[in-house]
Design brief:
The chain has 291 residues and is of the alpha+beta class. The protein folds into 2 domains: 142 residues, no CATH class; 110 residues, Tetratricopeptide repeat domain (Serine Threonine Protein Phosphatase 5, Tetratricopeptide repeat, Alpha Horseshoe). 41% of the residues lie in helices and 29% in strands. The strands form 3 sheets. It has a 6-stranded antiparallel beta sheet with strand order 1-2-3-6-7-8, with no helix packed on it. Strands 4-5 form a two-stranded antiparallel ribbon. The protein is elongated, with a radius of gyration of 30 Å.
Length: 291
């Protein structure tokens, strides 16, 4: 009798385990989502812009003025809130936006949309509060080729600007994000240089950016002088020659480049011999024809 009960208990335990395993397998089964998750990221200068959203399909429906009523706020995607993240401070239509993540809303209309960034990053249509808006921008709705699924695009226009676009069905809206890239880089460089005496190569590279990237000629040559005072090599002398050429002092640039070759020849490295010497010689040829 005891063996019978023991066998019955064992069989029930095995059956329970099999049932649990079967249910677990069903729970883990993956199926296609009606509005799959999507994201797009673009680095602009030193700023990362990231948009995460769920992408609904048209599926033969009337979208504008149908599924999405004109003048009604929309989370600009499906499922959870659409989010846009900036890794640094930016500006949208003249409005400053601090680094961070925001919910992305829009109010579609026939000719003109309202684009909204809201500081409640998890807001939806029901929890949205206009007083929490960070940005409201009016943009023109444009006709576009058919797009079955909603998609966002971030185009890097320059180191200081990106263009963000929303495209679904036969409509597209876009807005510009402006970024003070040169100002941020220069602040970062100045903060680093202020911490301690920097390596001569760091100073030389910073000088080149200050001139070419930020247009700060005075600071650029001050940093270059510091670099060469620490250790004058073919490398920082070469950079100085290119800085001189950049501001139109070709004669001085040529003399400085020739000095760079003398320094490199006196203490050659494999990098100098295999690459940098030829690069400096090309500079000299180009500047000679431009004089």
């Amino acid at each position: 009798m005891m063996n019978l009960k023991s066998n019955l208990f064992s069989n029930l335990l095995i059956l329970f385990t099999l049932l649990c395993s079967s249910q677990l397998s069903v729970a883990q089964l993956k199926t296609p989502q009606a509005s799959p998750a999507a994201s797009v990221m673009q680095t602009v200068g030193i700023t990362e812009i990231d948009i995460s959203y769920s992408s609904p399909g048209v599926k033969g429906r009337e979208i504008w003025g149908g599924l999405l009523k004109n003048g009604k706020i929309w989370r600009s995607g499906a499922n959870a809130s659409t989010k846009i993240t900036f890794s640094t401070d930016v500006s949208i239509d003249g409005t400053s936006v601090a680094a961070g993540t925001y919910s992305f809303f829009s109010i579609p209309d026939a000719e003109e949309w309202t684009i909204i960034l809201n500081k409640n990053k998890n807001a939806n249509e029901n929890s949205y509060k206009q007083e929490e808006d960070v940005v409201r921008v009016k943009v023109k709705a444009e006709d576009a080729p058919m797009k079955e699924r909603l998609a966002y695009y971030i185009e890097q226009v320059s180191e200081d600007q990106a263009r963000v676009s929303l495209h679904w069905e036969k409509k597209m809206v876009s807005f510009n994000v402006d970024i003070s890239t040169a100002d941020m880089v220069m602040k970062g460089i100045k903060d680093e240089i202020a911490k301690a005496d920097r390596h001569y190569i760091t100073l030389a590279q910073s000088a080149q950016y200050a001139l070419n990237g930020a247009g700060d000629e005075k600071t650029a040559f001050e940093w270059m002088d510091k670099s060469m005072a620490i250790n004058q090599t073919f490398y920082n002398t070469m950079i100085k020659s290119r800085m001189l050429a950049h501001i139109g002092k070709k004669e001085e640039a040529i003399k400085t480049a020739q000095e760079a070759i003398k320094l490199g020849d006196a203490n050659p490295t494999s990098a100098y011999t295999n690459f940098w010497k030829g690069s400096i010689e090309n500079d000299l040829k180009n500047w000679a024809t431009e004089k």
